[in-house]
Amino acid sequence: MTAPAIDHTLDEIMNLAASHFKVPREKLMPDDDFFKTLRIDSLQALDLLTRLEHHFRIELPDYELQGVSDFRTLANRIRARL
Amino acid sequence: MNEFKGQTLSWQIVNGAVELALHRNPCNEIGSLTLNELDKFATALPGLAAESHALIVYSTIKAGFSAGADLRELFQRGLDIGKPAALRGVRAFLERIHAVMNTIDAAPLTTIAAVHGVTFGGGFELALVCDIIIADRMARFCFPELRLGLIPGFGGIPRLKRDLGNAVVRDLLLTGRSFNVMKAQQIGLVSQIAAEGEALRVARATASQVGKFDRKTAALAKEFVKPIPYEELKREIDIFCDLYASPAVEEGLRKFVENEGVQPYLP
Lengths: 82, 267
What we know:
Structural class of chain B: alpha/beta
Largest interface: A-B, 19 and 25 residues
Order of helices and strands of chain A: HHHH
Mean pLDDT of chain A: 90
Helix content of chain B: 40-55%
Low-confidence stretches of chain B: none
Radius of gyration of chain A: 12 Å
Distance between the termini of chain B: 41 Å
CATH topology of chain A: Non-ribosomal Peptide Synthetase Peptidyl Carrier Protein, Chain A
CATH class of chain A: Mainly Alpha
Strand order of the largest sheet of chain B: 1-2-3-4-6-8-11
Order of helices and strands of chain B: EEEHEEHHEEHEEHHEHEHHHH
Shape of chain A: globular
CATH class of chain B: Alpha Beta
Structural class of chain A: mainly alpha
CATH architecture of chain B: Alpha-Beta Complex
Oligomer: heterodimer
Low-confidence stretches of chain A: none
Number of helices of chain A: 4
Shape of chain B: globular
Strand content of chain A: under 5%
């Protein structure tokens, strides 16, 4: 039996979000609405976006995040830029 | 007036540099109150320039340097006094803020914007009048005006055209996207990047360095390298006012002002 593949991008996003917004990592799930789970507004979401861009060394235009509110979709958007 | 403490901003001279601090919550939105105090600053600037060698503009607000024009006030003005009177008011507002921006742009001091966090719209335009932009690594820049059916109105397009290539200007303007400090440095907008929370310290060190040189020479060098695009700036006001009269703008402003959700700053 093989262990399920770890999605490193998703994992790194949730680690960074938990650490910066001081939320216990175990409380974050891939399909969570991160606005609700992290209790952030749009300005803080832009802060998160900037931190993710620095972390992954990518440029992710904010219009690509339109309608994105869960970690899994966010990870997909980031992966497309790696 | 070498020292001033207002409701939206304050200034004082520190080690030969004028420090203009923005401190209006939630994120230094520029409305009538800020403009009144910026007017005072522009009036005081010649006197301040005689006693200093640099100007540092920064924000004490955690969220950022400035989120730009006070859109709530802009929207409310249209409701309160009707569109024709509001349009006259908008033109008068723009002419006043352009006068302030042009005064800072042409000041015989070396001017430094120390920015962090949200540096959007009119806030971005305020940074653009400065000779040097020093950015905290968490700074984020954006011209979101097209989302509202408008163009930047505080002199942004002519100054971006002056300072950057037209291809970059088109991308920033026509997509309305925000971008981080690495991109800002790559395109030549930001000259120095500071660690998180360190932009003001870096700006002070830079101000100290520029203070070593002869003021008259530095002022002449600045005037030579940084012409002010007065004709384009006037044209910008005309285009902004033409657009402001359209129903689409009222709708765009209403959508922004009445947005109770968490995403008003996302496109």
